[in-house]
Amino acid sequence: MRRLYSERELALPEDPIEAFKIWLKEAAELPSIIEANAMVLSTTGADGFISTRSVLLKDVSEAGFTFFTNYSSRKAHAIEINPQVSLLFPWYAMERQVIIQGFATKVSREESEAYFQTRPWGSQIGAWASHQSAPLDNREELESRFKGAAEKWPEGSKVPTPPHWGGYLVNPFTIEFWQGRSSRLHDRIRFERSHNSGEATSNWEAKRYYP
Asked: Mean pLDDT across the stretch 186-203?
């Protein structure tokens, strides 16, 4: 199980957010990559164990990376205890990955409600039906809850945003770009925020690391 990597150079703009947007666009245009905005979110729980799961990136800006979830979920409880998280975008088909470390904070209620209204009706109903991360006795119980919510808010009606549902913004302090190269001499460039009097600024410093 071994493959040869290409000789694709790692050339990036000085702004890592802009660099990420370029890579995300290229990944989204590649047919072999399904859901280019899928990322692996890692959190640390109260027990000290790290847990990982795939979530979907819904926005990227100079402020950071936004995703939405159930605030009663395992990931949300972990973030409440320790807001330091890691994001991984594994674009294997492009011999690329991006690793982001940052602090997660809840977005405004207005932003969560605005995004919720853009979701498909089934996803909206599902948000009401699921007690995410809670034990479930059987599949029928979940389907029954979905049916009940669907009857309460039929398709075509406005479904309110659940109080337990909303977004997180991950404000990054490191963004690392990895590009596969031949002979395992891969390229790694990590952008780190420069600091001034202990406060993070929008300035980034790029450093190259051994693969």
From this structure: 72
